[in-house]
Design brief:
Strand order of the largest sheet: 1-5
Strand content: 5-15%
Shape: globular
Helix content: 40-55%
Number of strands: 10
Oligomer: single chain
Distance between the termini: 36 Å
Radius of gyration: 23 Å
Number of helices: 18
Order of helices and strands: HHEHHHEHEHHHEHEHHEEEEEHHHHHH
C-alpha cells in the first residue's frame, strides 16, 4: 500500500503536510495518530474535487458564458465528446480509496477511543457516499469499490460498471452508518468536516434525487423531509447579509453546514480564480465605481455569469451584487457607456501581501439549501412551501420583501418558483445542472440543448483515456 500521509488536521488550524515515503500495512494503521493522518489525507483528496463539483454540477447548465480569455465552451455549449470530455472519475476514486482505507482499518486499532473511532468512520462513510452520489448523477453506472485497492491484481483493479440502483443502495447504507456514528448535532470548527447535520443534508439531497429520478416516490420524499426537519434543530440559520456567507474572514459562519476548506499557506487557488477580473482587460474609461468594485485584480477570467441568468436578478435583490458585477465603459464605437463584461463575486478571494488569492471555503451545503430542498419536498408532497420560500426571499429582498412575497399556487407553478429561487440563491455554487435534471427542465432551459432532447445527454461522456485504461468499461450511450 502506498500512501501519502498528512499530519493531523483540525479545521481551526492551518493544515501542515509532512510527506512520509512508502508506508506498508506492517508499519502503519497502528495508532490513533496514523488514523488522524489518513483522515487528513482523505479530506485533502476531497478538497481536490472542488473543481469537479462545479464542472459536473453547473457548467453544462445555462449559468455560465465566456468572459475575456478562452473559456471552456464545451460545457455550456454541450459539445462534450469522449475525446474532448469533461472530468474523468479517476481522481474521485482516489477519494473513495482513502475512505475505504479508513473503513477497513480503523476498527482494527484497539487503542482508538470508541467514540472517536465511530466519528472517524462516520466521516469516511459520508465522504464515500458524497463522491458516489456526485459520480452516479454524472455518469450513471459505475465501477464499484467498497474495499481499498491495495494490489495490482487485475481482478481487483479492473471492474465492470454496476447498475445505478446498486450504487444508491450503497450510498443510502453509508449515510445510515455515518449518521449513527455521530454522538450529537454539533458542528466542528469552521464546519469543514462532516458532522451529523452535514450528513443529514446529504441524505436529504440523495433521497430527494431518488424520489424524483429513481422511482422512490413519496417514501423517499418523506425520508428527505425528516432529515431536513432534523437539521433545523441544529445551530444553523440564514445570515442577514448574503455577501458575508462566502467571505474569507467569515469562514464557518452559522449558515454553513459543510464546506471544503481553503486557507493561506495550505492550498492553491480555487474555482473563484476562473471568474474574476485581471489588469489585461482593464479599460481607461472605467468609472471609479467599477475600479473600486474590482479592487485588486486576479485570477484567469475565462467564464462569467451568463446574460440569461444575470437578467433574472432584480435590482432590489441583495444576491445580485453579491453574485456578480457588471462593468460598463465608454467603448470606441459609442460616446455613451456600454456593457463591457462582468465578473463573479462569489468566491472572490481576499488580499494577501498585495495580491488577490482565491481561498474562500467552497460551500457544499448551507442552511438556504435546507430551506429550498424542504420547499421542493413539501410541494412534491402537496404541502404548502410558502414558509421556506418566503424565508429565502425575506433575506434576499429585505425592505422590499412585500413586493416579492410568495403565495402558493399550483404544484407546477410552485415548482417553477422553487427552481428559479434555487438559481438566484445558488448561482456559481455547483448545483444548477443537477437541479435542472431533478426538475426535468434541462431541455427546456439550457439553450444548447433545446433542440437536442436526448436523455442520454444528461450523462457525461467517459473519456477515451479512461476507456483505454479500464478495459471492462463501455462508453455511455449518446457518445
Amino acid at each position: 500500500m502506498l500512501l501519502l500521509i498528512a499530519l493531523s488536521q483540525s479545521c481551526n488550524k492551518n493544515l501542515e503536510l509532512e510527506p512520509i515515503s512508502q508506508i506498508s500495512r506492517a508499519s502503519f494503521w497502528k495508532s490513533p495518530d496514523d488514523v488522524n493522518g489518513a483522515l487528513a489525507a482523505m479530506y485533502l483528496s476531497l478538497r481536490d474535487e472542488s473543481y469537479n463539483v462545479h464542472y459536473l454540477g453547473e457548467y453544462r447548465s445555462e449559468v455560465l458564458e465566456r468572459s475575456f480569455s478562452t473559456g471552456p465552451f464545451k460545457y455550456w455549449e454541450n459539445t462534450l465528446t469522449a475525446d474532448d470530455p469533461g472530468p474523468a472519475w479517476n481522481t474521485m476514486y482516489k477519494v473513495i480509496h482513502n475512505a475505504n482505507l479508513l473503513i477497513k482499518y480503523v476498527p482494527t486499532i484497539s487503542s482508538m477511543p470508541e467514540q472517536k473511532a465511530k466519528e472517524v468512520l462516520a466521516q469516511a462513510y459520508a465522504t464515500r457516499a458524497f463522491i458516489y452520489f456526485l459520480m452516479v448523477r454524472a455518469w450513471g453506472k459505475l465501477p464499484f469499490y467498497v474495499e481499498p485497492v491495495e494490489g495490482i491484481d487485475p481482478k481487483t483493479v479492473q471492474k465492470e460498471r454496476v447498475p445505478v440502483a446498486q450504487i444508491f443502495e450503497l450510498i443510502k447504507s453509508d449515510l445510515d452508518e455515518a449518521i449513527d456514528g455521530f454522538a450529537n448535532m454539533d458542528f466542528p470548527n469552521n464546519r469543514c468536516e462532516w458532522s451529523k447535520p452535514a450528513v443529514l443534508a446529504l441524505k436529504a439531497d440523495v433521497y430527494l434525487w431518488t424520489a424524483k429520478r429513481e422511482g422512490g416516490g413519496n417514501a423517499d420524499l418523506n425520508i428527505s423531509l425528516s432529515a431536513l426537519n432534523e437539521i433545523q434543530t441544529s445551530d444553523t440559520k440564514l445570515l442577514d447579509d448574503f455577501n458575508s456567507i462566502f467571505r474569507y474572514n467569515n469562514k464557518g459562519n452559522k449558515e454553513i453546514i459543510f464546506a471544503l476548506r481553503y486557507a493561506d499557506n495550505e492550498s492553491r487557488n480555487n474555482i473563484g480564480q476562473l471568474a474574476y477580473m485581471i489588469n489585461a482587460y482593464f479599460l481607461p474609461t472605467f468609472s471609479e465605481e467599477t475600479l473600486s468594485a474590482i479592487g485588486i485584480p486576479g485570477g484567469t477570467p475565462n467564464m462569467t455569469i451568463s446574460k440569461i441568468v444575470r437578467d433574472q436578478f432584480t435590482l432590489d435583490d441583495q444576491r445580485r451584487d453579491a453574485t456578480f458585477y457588471e462593468m460598463f465603459a465608454v467603448l470606441p464605437d459609442s460616446p455613451e457607456e456600454q456593457y463591457y463584461g462582468s465578473f463573479v463575486r462569489k468566491y472572490q478571494g481576499h488580499i494577501l501581501n498585495g495580491a488577490r488569492v482565491f481561498l474562500d471555503d467552497i460551500v457544499i451545503y448551507r442552511y438556504a439549501d435546507v430551506l429550498l430542498m424542504k420547499a421542493e419536498v413539501k410541494n412534491a408532497l402537496n404541502q404548502d412551501p410558502s414558509e421556506e420560500i418566503n424565508a429565502i426571499r425575506r433575506r434576499a429582498y429585505t425592505t422590499n420583501f412585500d413586493n416579492h412575497k410568495f403565495v402558493s399556487s399550483s404544484k407546477e407553478k410552485n415548482d417553477a418558483a422553487i427552481l428559479k429561487e434555487r438559481l438566484l440563491e445558488f448561482t456559481f455554487e455547483g448545483k444548477r445542472w443537477f437541479d435542472l435534471i431533478r426538475f426535468g427542465k434541462v431541455f427546456e432551459l439550457v439553450p444548447s440543448l433545446k433542440d437536442r432532447p436526448d436523455p442520454n445527454l444528461l450523462l457525461f461522456p467517459i473519456p477515451t483515456s479512461t476507456l483505454s485504461l479500464e478495459t471492462k468499461i463501455e462508453q455511455n450511450p449518446g457518445y
